[in-house]
Amino acid sequence: MNATEGRSAGRPQRESDLVRAFVTLADTLVSDFDVSDLLDSLVTHSVNLLDADAAGLLLSDQKGGLAVVASSSEQTHGLEVFQIQVNEGPCLECCATGEPVSAEDIGVVAERWPAFAAAAAEAGHRSVLALPLRVRGEVIGAMNLFRNQTGPFPQIDVELAQGLSDVAAIGILQQRAIQNRELLVEQLQGALNSRIVIEQAKGMLAERGQIELSDAFAALRGYARSSSTGLAQVAADVLSGSLSPDLVLVSRAGARKDQGTR
Amino acid sequence: MSLVAASCVSRLPGDGGSVTLMTSDLARTTIHTSDAMIAYVEQRQYALGEGPSLTAFLTGVPALIANVARAPRAPWPVLFGEIEQLPIGSLYAFPLRVGVISLGVCSFYRRAARPLTPADVTTVLTTLEATTLDLVAASAREEVEPALDGRTHDALSSTQIHQATGMIMAQLGTDAVTALARLRGRAFAEGRGVHTVAHDVVARTTSLREDAS
User: Fold this and answer.
1) Dihedral angle computed from the Cα positions of residues B40, B44, B45 and B51, in that order, rounded to the nearest 10 degrees
2) Using the 8-state DSSP alphabet, how is residue A230 labeled?
3) How far apart are the CA of A26 and the nearest CA of chain B, in angstroms?
4) pLDDT at A9
5) How many whole angstroms separate alpha carbon B82 and alpha carbon B44?
6) How far apart are CA B207 and CA B23, in angstroms?
7) Which stretches of chain A sit within 8 Å of chain B by CB?
């Protein structure tokens, strides 16, 4: 905590926000564990707490590729998917090497990653930091932080982001020690499938309410929080018909401020 | 369906395997077993009501036992007591699953206990993804280009396919299996890639609503 003091002068809220973030993450781990909640909390907290404008999280799909499992916005989601498609960019390099990859000025790295640099610039991002999610030497994915200005991330933010990523990595593996590959496959497949359930539910809610996918996700998240249910569980209930999609859709507007349900 | 299942099992890195279709109320049909050994193991699991195949289906997460002899007995005590005399080194069960779509389970064994390598995992996951897609189409009686033996790789890696599946569920008032099958059927009928059609559905330039009748 001492290390943050010098930096936190401009952000008096930060220390308490930080405590809250770790408490929320830890909470996700102990009670009614839902990996999607954990990953969603992670990207949300990263944007709120760190000097970052957007965040995305990729996991190994264990088929030689990567899958986007959480992002702070649909736009960021698109940018992450694009990196996977064009097979270039800091996040892929980070996953391949297992080392943090930093691009302090995306304009300067255009030669190295031309397609990524163009897409990132179009999204308004000027710098990026990719941090590995590691479990006992094995890289299972990466967290990416984007900023809309150039320059290095403050060192304390880098350390903090790595700390948050490490918590997420532990969370994905449900606090179980990875003695073998089988356990890693089981846990990662569970996390990846939860994300698919959420995407299916987003599509259904977006079509039902004739709204954007990002709004559909906000509704899902709003309902999950107000009912203290896991994101993936709410998504599965909507898709199975045991929870009315309309009930979830009404929690969109008021979700953040009040209970949002009728 | 049994042809799809047989083709699937033949690609897996094991000595024998099976595919069982299951519904949420645990009604099941084993549509393929490649030998008597796996047929016995599958049959005993359902008779006893315990085992990796059932666990994989119920949890939606693979149940992987690299070394049957050394694995803890606790999760499946009776089954493991029965099969420890058999020449089964490793026993692996994977759910056939795409998000909320849950069709059943594929299990396979190795005579010698041998953990899955990263290459094995890739082979298994890609094979099962294609198999699941083909079983989805078959169960909805939709004509599609086979994913397992098809020349084009009709993989599910795109987020938009899952989003489009949800949108089609709302458009047609149907379940996820039918929605995904319709999406692939539409792509096949129009000679387009499933990713392209999914993209158009998500962009709302294509709707499957008119197909409803």
Assistant:
1) -80
2) -
3) 23
4) 44
5) 9
6) 29
7) 61-65, 67-68, 77, 81, 84, 180-183, 185-187, 189-190, 193, 196-197, 199-208, 213, 235-236, 239-240, 245
Where does residue A178 rank: exposed (0-12), middle (13-18), buried (19+ CB within 10 A)? middle
Long-range Cβ pairs for the range B70-74 (8 Å, 24+): B70/B113
**pLDDT number for residue A5:** 41
Q: How many CA atoms lie within 13 A of A125 on its CB side?
A: 27
Token pair recorded at residue B33: 């077993």
In this structure, what token pair is assigned to residue B188? 């096949």
Query: Please, what's the largest Cα pairwise distance for chain A?
Result: 54
Q: Do B64 and A204 touch (CB under 8 A)?
A: no
For tokens 């944007």, what's the residue?
A: A47
* Cα(A93)–Cα(A91) distance, integer angstroms: 5
Global ipTM: 0.91
- Residue B156 tokens read as 């599910």
Tell me what pLDDT residue A8 has: 43
Q: Which helix (H) or strand (E) holds B164?
A: helix B159-172
pLDDT at A255 over 50: no
Distances (CA, A) of A102 to A36, A134, A153, A254, B27: 26, 17, 9, 38, 52
Q: Is B161 left (phi over 0), alpha (psi -120 to 50) or beta?
A: alpha
- Cβ neighbourhood burial of A235 (10 Å; 0-12, 13-18, 19+): buried
> Mean per-residue pLDDT for B156-180?
92
Q: What's the rounded mean pLDDT across residues B133-139? A: 91
Rounded Cα gap, residues A73 and A165, in angstroms: 18
A128 has which bridge partners? A103, A146
With contact defined as beta carbons under 8 Å apart, do B6 and B34 qualify? yes
Of A151, A66, A61, which Cα lies nearest the Cα of A105?
A: A151
**Nearest residue of B to residue A67 by CA position?**
B157
Report the pLDDT value the prediction gives residue A262, as an integer from 0 to 100: 33
Q: Is the pLDDT of residue A214 over 80?
A: yes
How many C-beta neighbours within 10 Å does residue B137 have? 25
pLDDT score, position A167: 81
More reliable by pLDDT, A98 or B147: A98
Contacts of A64 in chain B (CB under 8 A): 122
- Dist CA B159 CA A55 (whole Å): 18
Mutating which of A62, A179, A185, A195 best tests the B interface, going by the most B Cβ atoms within 10 A? A185
Residue numbers in A near B98 (CB within 8 A):
193, 196
